[in-house]
Amino acid sequence: MTIREITDNYSVSPQIALEDLPQIAEAGYSLIIDNRPDGEIPSEIGTEAMRAAAEAAGLTFVANPVIGGAITMENVSTQGAAISGAAGRILAYCASGNRSSIVWALSQAGNRPTDELVALPARHGYNMEIWRDQIEALASGK
């Protein structure tokens, strides 16, 4: 399990395993956001299996499947609502952490400076520069 801290309360990760969830809870996370569509993964680590294991570990679980290359405004809104409603630290995961970083940056447009939304994920190799115009467009609409 490789957790990459984007902010003090939002981190991303590549796919996690069921057995990682107790350790994630012990590390102080309270919310898991699953950005991985079930069609990409075996059912053993699909949404419902992860939800059951997360809840058994005392974590809140939100499913927000993001399809690579087809991010929707519903994905952005769902991520933003989950983030704003979280009672503590958040871990979002997908295949690599990239989609979880993208929907975070888009959902925070207007709440944080665009340069920050681009730079924070870039520390971990996630290229948000290609999303700069979309972030700025969303920020101007808020």
UniProtKB/TrEMBL annotation:
Would you say which domain of life the source belongs to? Bacteria
Q: Name one GO molecular function term.
A: hydrolase activity
> What is the protein name stated in its UniProt record?
TIGR01244 family phosphatase
Alphabetized CDD domains for the sequence? PTP-bact
Q: Which residues form the Beta-lactamase hydrolase-like protein phosphatase-like domain?
A: 3-110
Stored NCBIfam families: TIGR01244 family sulfur transferase
- Which organism does this record belong to? Falsigemmobacter faecalis
Q: Which Pfam families match?
A: BLH_phosphatase
